[in-house]
Structures are given as structure tokens and as C-alpha cells.
Specification:
about 100 residues, 4 strands, about 25% helix, alpha+beta, four-stranded antiparallel beta sheet
Length: about 100
């Protein structure tokens, strides 16, 4: 896991976790570019890596995104009032990055 320079910068990103894998960095960078996203918060990391995947769950304040890659799994909270379009955008970006 590594810290990619500039990923946690900007007014939309809040985090005490400064370490994450490339899959989590991709989701953070993609989400923070969207005007409908008010905040992106990387959260806990588990050591259980595996097949590259993304799981998106709707919650009251936005989306709970669980990203799994070879280095582990990480939860990322994406705060938005437009859950449908942000969820769709993340799924499409993830599929394209494949």
C-alpha cells in the first residue's frame, strides 16, 4: 500500500488514513472530481486482499464503497445527495479501468 501524492488533497477529502492501495486511490480520485460529491472519506483497511472488486452500498449520507485489490480491502465513504448517478458513475469508471 502506498500514498500517491496529491490524492488526499482538496477540500472534499477528509482522512486520518494516509495509506491505501491503487484501487482505493482510483475510487478516491474519481469520486472527488464529481460535482455531486460533497466529501470523500477513506476509512478502515483490512489485510484480506483478493480479486479486484468493488461493492457499493447506499447509506443515509451517500455511499459506502468497499474496494478490494491485491493489497487488501478498504472502505471509502462517499457523501452525496445524488446516490443514483454517483453509484452509476463509479461502476462505469471501475469497469473501464478493468
Amino acid at each position: 500500500m502506498s500514498l500517491r501524492k496529491g490524492v488526499l488533497r482538496g477540500r472534499k477529502v477528509r482522512s486520518k488514513h494516509s495509506t491505501f492501495g491503487p484501487e482505493a486511490a482510483f475510487v478516491i480520485e474519481t469520486a472527488k472530481k464529481e460535482p455531486g460529491v460533497t466529501r470523500v472519506v477513506p476509512a478502515q483497511i483490512t489485510g484480506r486482499g483478493g480479486k479486484r472488486s468493488i461493492k457499493i452500498q447506499r447509506v443515509q449520507a451517500g455511499l459506502k464503497v468497499v474496494v478490494r485489490g491485491s493489497t487488501g480491502a478498504q472502505v471509502i465513504w462517499v457523501y452525496t445527495s445524488d446516490q443514483n448517478s454517483i453509484e452509476q458513475m463509479l461502476k462505469e469508471a471501475w469497469a473501464k479501468a478493468g
